[in-house]
């Protein structure tokens, strides 16, 4: 499928088209992180000015993403309300294919949705549970660990790559304490 414009049908005052195309025009290849989840919708104003076709309007699509923090799959509507492109029209009776432009504008909009939600808590770095769905003992251990080392700079501990190791080491003790 494709979005094809027939310039000879556009009246001097311009025209408006709306519609949807199956999501397979996105053609995302083999990636499993991002997959289309519905048709691409478009609502476009067309104007023919001398030898240029001017197209502006809105393009949207529902897309399924994989959250970069918690690896959950989620569906978002991706949208560009300020879609604009211009294409030379040498021959008024030749069709203009806008499929590539619509595909690109949707793909460019992907970058805005790396996580399922702003407050996504991600996966526990120690035991791997999804912290949005369940809690694990590791967080409590971390806090215990921090209060024990309260004289240290927390940020340094967090980014230093030693956090996981230290928490793991303190694991057996803490478990004993709980029993
Ligand atoms: Zn998430
Ligand atoms: Zn955990």
Architecture overview:
- This protein has 179 residues and is of the alpha+beta class.
- The protein has two domains: 109 residues, no CATH class; 59 residues, no CATH class.
- The chain is 25% helix and 32% strand.
- Strand 3 and strand 4 form a beta hairpin.
- Helix 2 crosses helix 4.
- It is elongated and about 70 Å long.
- 13% of the residues are buried.
- One zinc ion binds next to loops.
Concise overview:
With 179 residues, the protein is of the alpha+beta class. It has helices spanning 99-109, 138-148, 154-159, 163-178; strands at residues 4-5, 15-21, 34-49, 52-66, 73-88, 96-97.
Which SSEs are present, and which pair or pack?
Elements: E1 4-5, E2 15-21, E3 34-49, E4 52-66, E5 73-88, E6 96-97, H1 99-109, H2 138-148, H3 154-159, H4 163-178
Bound molecules: zinc ion (2 copies).
